[in-house]
Amino acid sequence: MTMAEAPTSRPTPRAVARPFAWATSRSFVLAAGCLVVALSVVLGCAVGAVHVPPLEVLQSMLGLETPHREMLMSIRFPRVALGLLVGSGLGLSGASLQGVFRNPIVDPGFLGISTGAVLFAVVAVVLGGHGAVSTMRTALGAPLLLSAAAFVGALVAMLSVRWLATVEGRLSLTALLLSGLAVNTVAGALTGVLLYAATDVQVVTVTFWTFGSLGGATWGTVLRVAPIFALGLVTLPRLGRSLDALVLGDAEAGHLGIPVERTKLLVIVVSALLVGAQVAVSGLVGFVGLVIPHVLRLWAGASHKTLLPASALFGAALVVLADTSARIVVKPAELPLGVITAALGAPFFLALLLKERRRLV
Question: 3-state secondary structure string, the chain?
Answer without folding.
Answer: CCCCCCCCCCCCCCCCCCCCHHHHCHHHHHHHHHHHHHHHHHHHHHCCCCCCCHHHHHHHHCCCCCCCHHHHHHHHHHHHHHHHHHHHHHHHHHHHHHHHHCCCCCCCCCCCHHHHHHHHHHHHHHCCCCHHHHHHHHHHCHHHHHHHHHHHHHHHHHHHHHHHHEECCEECHHHHHHHHHHHHHHHHHHHHHHHHCCCHHHHHHHHHHHCCCCCCCCHHHHHHHHHHHHHHHHHHHHHHHHHHHHHHCHHHHHHCCCCHHHHHHHHHHHHHHHHHHHHHHHCCCCCHHHHHHHHHHHHHCCCHHHHHHHHHHHHHHHHHHHHHHHHHCCCCCCCCHHHHHHHHHHHHHHHHHHHHHHHHC
